[in-house]
């Protein structure tokens, strides 16, 4: 069964959670606290890490977290919808959704080409590796540079 993949800010997910009917699994990545009371009946994993690409920082995304996400989502067999949420719904969550889309055989380039998203290259790289995908750190950098170039072209187009 194909799963629908969604990317959104955590605050929006709280609003959606009250209306969700389908089996849902969610990965919530933030340094902030999670309001578990708003997530009753939702199968979720909360991981705390910063939106940084410097893997030497103590609060950066780690391979252990990427492996936790893979185990969590691999076990969420009943879920028909997967949500990836971070504070703004555009960097950490987009990177996780891109890697997971690739892992599931989908077209992750839809996310990289979407200028609303700015996938975090470190998060994408580590999650891809945790999913045994043949992605190098340089691949992740190139995808991120491509995404930035599309964003800048769109900004320039708006100005003219």
CATH architecture: Alpha-Beta Complex
The low-confidence runs, each spanning 5 or more residues with pLDDT under 50, are none
CATH homologous superfamily heading: Protein tyrosine phosphatase superfamily
> How many domains comprise the coordinates?
1
- Give the helix tally: 6
Following the backbone from N to C, one meets helices and strands in this order, namely EHEEHEHHHH
Radius of gyration: 15 Å
Helix-residue proportion: 40-55%
Structural class estimated from helices and strands: alpha/beta
The counted number of beta strands is 4
Fold-level CATH name: Protein-Tyrosine Phosphatase, Chain A
Neighbour order of strands in the largest sheet: 1-4-2-3
Residue fraction in strands: 5-15%
Shape: globular
CATH class: Alpha Beta
Instruction: Give the quaternary arrangement of the chains.
Output: single chain
Main sheet makeup: 4 strands, parallel
Please state the average pLDDT score: 94
Q: What is the terminal-to-terminal distance?
A: 45 Å
Describe the structure.
The chain has 160 residues and is of the alpha/beta class. The protein has one domain: Protein tyrosine phosphatase superfamily (Protein-Tyrosine Phosphatase, Chain A), CATH 3.90.190. The chain has 6 helices and 4 strands, in the order E-H-E-E-H-E-H-H-H-H. It has helices at residues 10-17, 63-75, 92-103, 109-112, 121-130, 137-159; strands at 4-9, 24-29, 43-47, 81-86. Strands 1-4-2-3 form a 4-stranded parallel β-sheet. Helix 2 crosses helix 5 (121-130), helix 3 runs parallel beside helix 5 and helix 5 runs antiparallel to helix 6 (137-159). It is globular. It starts with a strand and ends with a helix. The mean pLDDT is 94.
């Amino acid at each position: 069964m194909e799963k629908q993949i969604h990317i959104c800010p955590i605050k929006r997910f709280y609003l959606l959670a009250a209306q969700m009917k389908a089996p849902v699994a969610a990965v919530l990545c933030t340094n902030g606290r999670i309001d578990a009371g708003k997530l009753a009946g939702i199968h979720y994993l909360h991981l705390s890490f910063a939106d940084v690409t410097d893997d030497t920082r103590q609060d950066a995304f780690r391979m252990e977290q990427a492996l936790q996400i893979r185990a969590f989502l691999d076990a969420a067999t009943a879920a028909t919808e997967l949500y990836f949420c971070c504070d703004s719904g555009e960097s950490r969550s987009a990177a996780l959704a891109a890697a997971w889309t690739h892992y599931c055989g989908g077209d992750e380039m839809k996310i990289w080409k979407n200028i609303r998203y700015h996938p975090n290259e470190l998060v994408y790289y580590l999650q891809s590796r945790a999913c045994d995908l043949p992605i190098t750190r340089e691949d992740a950098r190139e995808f991120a540079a491509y995404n930035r170039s599309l964003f800048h072209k769109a900004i320039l187009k708006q100005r003219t």
